[in-house]
Design goal:
This protein has one domain: Carbon-nitrogen hydrolase (Nitrilase/N-carbamoyl-D-aminoacid amidohydrolase, 4-Layer Sandwich). It is about 25% helix and about 30% strand. The protein has helices at about 20-35, 55-60, 70-80, 165-175, 190-205, 255-265, 265-270, and strands spanning about 5-15, 40-45, 85-95, 100-105, 115-120, 125, 130-135, 145-150, 155, 180, 210, 215-220, 225, 230, 240, 245-255, 275, 285-290. β4 (about 100-105) and β5 form a beta hairpin. α1 runs parallel beside α3 (about 70-80). The two termini are about 20 Å apart.
Length: about 290
């Protein structure tokens, strides 16, 4: 599905989220207004727009349920005021006494919530130098992949660590997504190694635009994030890329490029599913089990 409008401007808001929800609302709102002034029709903020806090006690002291969340209410009003599509890359939202959701919100021009997406793949890793993350201690994983229709085409919603699981993006493209949203708070260590190549790979594999607003710099809680918010076209070309500091990254998007690239290399149509043989004689061999990818 594509809309009658084929061109629009997409803007990525790069932040350095602090421990203060109020400060983060103010900072994000200023950058969102800047993006609108630059002509953006779709504006995306990064993962953890409302707070960057790794400690459970500190986080839950500030968390609110969705219906009471100050940041969500403020951004819904801002989308209404600016008459723009606003995609909150994610907010930390309280869902129970001991769990939060890492939840994206797509908000329309009237300030209504079009859809929500809870991050499926949680970042439980031990990096070099003692850098460690255990998101599953605090967050409840999502269970459903989500798409939503924009006036220009269909958007597939993901968050940060989801980037490393290509089957999710193939499924979203198979469900009609022209644009893949990958808002993130990538660590500096992993970002320097993998950020750009993974963003370009997801675009190339699916013939989709990639929109990736990012956190960047040294945060109040001591975490270092990579920044480099990106917009990538379906051929894998980087249309726009930020640095480390808070900023707005913007590019014009032509949704017709998706069909052109997918016609040139129709890999979504050619994909096959395989199962790995488990018998001693066949071990290590792959067997075609269907045409669906």
């Amino acid at each position: 599905m594509t809309g009658t409008q084929t061109k629009f401007k997409a803007a990525m808001v790069q932040m350095r989220t602090s421990l203060s929800v109020e400060k983060n609302i103010e900072t994000a709102s200023k950058l969102i207004r800047e993006a609108k002034d630059l002509g953006a029709d779709y504006i995306q903020t990064p993962e953890m727009t409302n707070i960057m806090e790794q400690g459970r006690d500190g986080l839950f002291a500030r968390l609110q349920e969705e219906e009471r969340d100050d940041a969500l209410a403020a951004f819904r009003q801002l989308a209404r005021d600016l008459k723009t599509y606003l995609h909150l890359g994610s907010l930390a939202i309280k869902v129970s006494n001991d769990k939060a959701a890492n939840r994206s919100f797509l908000i329309d021009r009237e300030g209504e919530i079009v859809t929500r997406y809870d991050k499926i793949h949680l970042f439980d890793v031990q990096l070099a130098g003692g850098e460690s993350y255990r998101e599953s201690n605090t967050y409840k994983p999502g269970e459903v992949a989500v798409t939503a229709d924009l006036p220009w085409g269909r958007l597939g919603l993901t968050i940060c660590y989801d980037l490393r699981f290509p089957a999710l993006y193939r499924a979203l493209a198979g469900a009609g997504a022209h644009f893949l949203a990958i808002p993130a708070a990538f660590t500096k260590q992993t970002g320097e190694a993998h950020w750009q190549v993974l963003q370009r790979a997801r675009a190339i594999e699916t013939g989709s635009f990639v929109f990736a607003a990012a956190q960047g710099g040294r945060h109040e809680n001591g975490r270092d994030t990579y920044g480099h918010s990106m917009i990538v076209d379906p051929w894998g070309r980087v249309l726009a890329e930020g640095g480390v500091d808070p900023s707005v990254v913007i590019a014009e998007i032509d949704v017709e490029e998706v069909a052109k690239v997918r016609a040139r290399i129709p890999s979504l149509e050619h994909g096959r599913r395989f199962e790995v043989a488990s018998t001693a004689q066949e071990r290590g061999h792959l067997h075609l089990v269907g045409k669906a990818s």
